[in-house]
Amino acid sequence: MLVRTLAEVEDTDADIKSETWRSKRIILAKEGVGFSVHETTLYEGTESYFWYANHIEAVFITHGEGEIEDLATGEVHQLAPGSLYLLNDHDKHKVRVRKEIRCVCVFNPPVTGREVHDEDGVYPLITEDA
């Protein structure tokens, strides 16, 4: 059994910060369970572009308000506590934040913690053997 708190992750190399978001990676590939779990904060008044070409991501909103736009269709969905979105088709998307959003994200395959979004918003596929 693994028990880990956010406090144990804060300000470590598993706590990734950008201009528009912060991601605390709680469970990573090294745990060997086939997925990773992150608590992510998206800052109020920001817009972020993402495209997980190599990963499937599920996102459950626990706090805040905003919207997600599917860039393939132009469809916009409202986000609020209790909302979940699943990027099951490697969907290119933008998230616009009206009120700071906190969410729990699950990635498959799991991230290692070394990934950085490239110019296309993509995480490279890195394995623990890399």
What is the element layout, followed by pairings?
Blueprint: H1 6-9, E1 15-17, E2 21-27, E3 36-42, E4 47-51, E5 56-70, E6 76-79, E7 84-87, E8 92-108
Antiparallel strand pairs: 1-2, 2-3, 3-8, 4-8, 5-6, 5-7, 5-8
Shape: globular
What is the average per-residue confidence, as pLDDT, rounded to a whole number?
90
C-alpha-based Rg, rounded:
14 Å
How many E strands? Answer: 8
Q: SSE string, helix = H, strand = E?
A: HEEEEEEEE
Through-space gap between termini: 26 Å
Helix content: under 10%
- State the oligomer: single chain
What class, by secondary structure content? Answer: mainly beta
**Number of distinct helices:** 1
Care to describe what's here?
The protein has 130 residues and is mainly beta. It is built from one helix and eight strands; from the N terminus they run H-E-E-E-E-E-E-E-E. The chain has one helix spanning 6-9, and strands spanning 15-17, 21-27, 36-42, 47-51, 56-70, 76-79, 84-87, 92-108. Strands 1, 2, 3, 4, 5, 6, 7 and 8 form an eight-stranded antiparallel beta sheet that branches. A hairpin with an 8-residue loop joins strand 2 (21-27) and strand 3 (36-42). The longest helix is centred in the N-terminal third of the chain and has 4 residues, at 6-9. The model has no long low-confidence stretch (mean pLDDT 90).
